[in-house]
Amino acid sequence: MRRKLKNFVVWTIMGALVLTAAACGNDSNTDKGTNSNSQSNREKQENIQEEGNKEKTKLSLFIVSRSPESLYSNETLTWKTIGEKFNVEFDFITGDNTTMSEKFRFTMASGDYPDIVAGQLKDINMFGKEGAFIPLNALIEQHSPSIKKHVIDDKDAFMQTSDDEGNIYAVPMMSAIRTSTGSMIRQDWLDRLNLPVPDTIEDWHRTLKAFKEQDANGNGDPNDEIPFASEAQGHYFMGFLDAWGLNWDWDNRWTEENGKMIYTPTDPRFKAFLETMHSWYEEGLLDKELMTRQKTDLDTMILNDRVGSTNHWIGHIAGFKNKPEAQKIDGFNYQSTPPVILNKGDKPLTHKQQKSVIQLGWGITANNKHVDLTMKIFEYVNSDEGQILFNFGKEGDTYTLDAEGNYQYTDKVTDSPDGIYNGLLRFGGQAWVGFRQHPQYEKLIADEDSFNQMYNYIEKDYFHPAYPTLKYASDDIERYGELTTQINTFVDEKVAKFVIGQEPISKFDDFVKQLQKLKLDELQQIQDRTYESYQAMISN
Description:
Blueprint: H1 35-52, E1 57-64, H2 77-86, E2 88-95, H3 97-110, E3 116-120, H4 121-129, H5 137-143, H6 145-152, H7 155-161, E4 171-174, E5 181-186, H8 187-192, H9 201-213, E6 254-257, E7 260-263, H10 268-282, H11 295-303, E8 309-313, H12 314-318, H13 324-327, E9 334-336, E10 357-364, H14 371-382, H15 384-392, E11 399-401, E12 407-409, H16 411-414, H17 420-426, H18 439-445, H19 448-459, H20 474-500, H21 508-517, H22 520-539
Parallel strand pairs: 1-2, 1-3
Antiparallel strand pairs: 3-10, 4-10, 5-8, 5-9, 6-7, 11-12
Helix pairs in contact: 5-6, 10-20, 14-15, 20-22
Protein name: Extracellular solute-binding protein
InterPro entries: Bact_solute-bd_prot1 (IPR050490), SBP (IPR006059)
Keywords: Cell membrane, Lipoprotein, Membrane, Palmitate, Signal
């Protein structure tokens, strides 16, 4: 029975997919030894012919097309391959992200669900609790060894995918690269000033000071350099918190440490961080527009040879050297640095990292009449073969293998007028479904240097343990959201004022007291019991 779900606005992508399989066969050789064998073979041939004549199962697929100029169809390489393998024909309901986000909320409110839905895990989990999706745990355990290995047996992946009761309603898309954001510095500026790569906070201070005072860009004007600048949205300058071992993300202010959850802004080490940032700001080592700098403005300053260092997605900034504007700047070269440390001899570690599970995937709705076959499709897409398909496409068509067994995209992808990545999206690669990204995919869409910079973090193991994926109970989640919103809004305003000097650091204790008035104690209690539940789940 269909259940009408409450309507709410979400930023997500959805997909519906129904799948069936039918065997195909060629003529068999008849056995001339006995009539019974001949009859048996004729029956087999008739069965094969009957299977081959079966009509394809038509399945609706509600999904965002990653390339809006090339909407998914049954001729899109990835979906055509699946259709042929499992004898299915997709009825695509697709469009760009904005269009499908609008359609999604109406679709889920109506109760008239597609067979398979691709979207954000949190939304699929939520609607799963209300009956729109079926739990997949038992089906995975029984029939899906690849999904079981990568989603259930991997405790981190399981926690990142399941709901608060341990139910899996979607098979997730999985990342191949752990590296995310980090400190980036102009290596050519360091070389010009004969400076080493900084590692401690004190080293960074000396380096930024030299960038400011010694005409680091070499244009004859010692006053036009901005030693450090970053994009305001995303709080990227918080990367310097690595030196104090604290975590801060744009949507998360908590640090897991020694079996406890610490609200980062109240920790004494955070006060020391603010003192350092304010001092650097006063010295002119940080961008004066640090708290409001927009991405487009930052990009312009970087490409105008003015920014000595930043903190951002490593692959993104490393790739700037390929931009036409950068190629006009002699020696332009951003390189990643190890996570900043406080004292010589400390191990460089960062909390900033991609989780193994990208928060997208696909699930089976309650309306699906082909659950077993759909699970076969899910298993295939998650398998090694499916991984190749959704990362590289079809051998001889969109990729080849070199003598060392490395993947190389063909001209069909690399000659795309708007870049390799868009060429990849056009054949259906990197669809927002439950497949595993391949490390070589990252290498192929980036230049070798950018890839090596990202992979360096992995090789050097610069990561703290991944932040736990906490599952808030239904009784807590709404209150947690309310408290987090009001507290984080207050914190963000105060942090900005502390850094730029509108509020003296001497008022830090008053700031902490004000947080208590905003019910931080209640938020801490919710966090603590949720963390206890998390520990219990991963210990099972």
